[in-house]
Design brief:
There is one protein chain. By secondary structure, this protein is an alpha+beta fold. It is built from eight helices and eight strands; from the N terminus they run ααααααββββββαββα. The protein has two domains: 96 residues, no CATH class; 121 residues, no CATH class. The structure holds zinc ion. Zinc ion binds next to α1 and α3.
């Protein structure tokens, strides 16, 4: 096959990103990416997230059956993607973006594991966070109120994927640091967070609250944050 246009490659990139392309398509995309900076940038954009207008998300949210329909179509087309051809993939793109990229699903409380809450020598609180079901996370949203409560909400697309590119709470250490700045930005320099939670679909899981007695971070953890 000869040269493929950027437009077709850009339609395929989200599929490529989620590793659901046929072998043949993967080869085409990779050959193209090797030579085309514009498409490499496009892939970076996909990795960095696609966001859609809120009203579209809300509309889709209320159309559960429509989503199922698209999902079934998607499943079939995945098998036959190359047979249907590149045009088919392009037509699916709209539904595809909705299912795989919109950030609207909260995770359930049962899969969140918080551990090793401790304090670095510089006073910053750190903890380990893990989503135990192994699925990917799109992003973490911030919510807060004037009573000092700060909520971290991990969110996912409607169709969960296990791809290797994007943010996972894969037992990584988190700093409780940036949130304080965000809070002050909203409620003023004197405002302090009193409690930090993970917000899930079922309940809010307390990570930290003011007055908690925290152990000093281990040397290993200190070293980890020093090198960052
Ligand atoms: Zn290109």
């Amino acid at each position: 096959m000869g040269k493929i246009s950027c437009e077709i490659i850009k339609d395929l990139l989200p599929l490529y990103y989620d590793e659901v392309c046929s072998v043949e398509s993967v080869r085409l995309v990779e050959e193209h990416l090797a030579e085309c900076q514009s498409c490499r940038l496009e892939l970076d954009k996909i990795k960095a997230n696609i966001s859609l207008p809120q009203e579209v998300v809300a509309k889709n949210y209320s159309e559960g059956d429509a989503i199922k329909g698209v999902a079934a179509l998607w499943k079939r087309s995945k098998v036959k993607a190359f047979v249907i051809g590149l045009l088919g993939a392009a037509l699916l793109f709209g539904g595809y973006v909705g299912l795989f990229q919109w950030e609207i699903m909260k995770v359930s409380a049962g899969v969140v594991e918080i551990s090793n809450l401790s304090k670095l020598s510089n006073g910053i609180i750190v903890y380990q966070a893990k989503l135990t079901d192994g699925y990917n996370l799109n992003t973490i949203k911030y919510d807060m109120d004037e009573y000092g409560n700060f909520y971290l909400t991990p969110v996912r697309p409607i169709v969960k994927t296990k791809n290797k590119f994007y943010k996972e709470l894969n037992n990584t250490y988190q700093r409780f640091d940036h949130e304080r700045l965000v809070y002050k930005e909203k409620y003023g320099d004197d405002a302090e967070i009193e409690a930090l939670y993970f917000r899930t679909s079922g309940e809010d899981i307390l990570i930290w609250k003011k007055g908690m007695d925290l152990p000093a971070a281990s040397d290993e953890v200190e070293a980890k944050f020093r090198s960052e």
